[in-house]
Predict the 3D structure of the following.
Amino acid sequence: MPSTSLDLATSDGARLAATAHDPGGAPRAVVVIGGAMGVSQDYYAPMASWLADQGIAVLSFDYRGMGRSRRGPLRDETADVLTWARQDCAAALAAAEARWPGTPVHWLGHSLGAQIVGLVPGHERLAGVLSVAAGSGYWRLNAPRVRLMVWWLWWVVAPLAIRLCGYFPGRKLRKVGDLPAGVMAQWRRWCLHPDYVGGESDAVRAELARVQLPVTVLSMSDDELMTWEGTRSLFGLYRSTRIEYRRVAPADHGLQRIGHFGFFRDKMRDSLWPIVPRWIEQRTAS
């Protein structure tokens, strides 16, 4: 299905690049894709187009400072992760509701996109959240193979790089991607706290505890970044809603590997992508 480029305005005056994937007729549901840290919306385009072919409208977007939403030198960008949640995600949700009025809107969050959905203004209007490969970034809960690497990242590389460059030059360092200084600094604080995003403040922890959204969590058994313990830790912050956990193993779907990023790759269209419309049908039925 054809896609349409959109220019979104946030309530604080930022401009975001977004893409609308319209189905051939009236959509039976709407999905907003909240992307992972440092990942452009273009990465999700193949799945978004496929979902549109299934009659599901999709809106993807880039957080400010990222992908096609980047405006000018990254050292001039003042956003942190909460800005992405409070402003950018809220603008994407509002844009989806305005473009496809009266159609239930679902949130498909990949990693960070699912970690922050409970902090998005208006999230209570969502029909449901599908989390893919999301969990606590607390470094002691990271997979063993990356635990030593992230310790070095948080205590040495990130502080030094931000001080020298005014932003985090992830592309040159081959870590995560280029990020605004405020985003990297806040993410670092979270990753050094046992409650991760809940460690931001008592108010944020209480806010997450009040969330009543239905959430389905897909945890990949071969995720090289997010452990099962880390996944349970993150969604343990949501104390007022029912969380449905689903462990996804590659062998169960005839696959050799999925990992942290594999769910959205084009080669998964026959094996993993059908999980999304089936989940929407279940949400609609309930």
User: Anything to note?
Assistant: The radius of gyration is 18 Å.
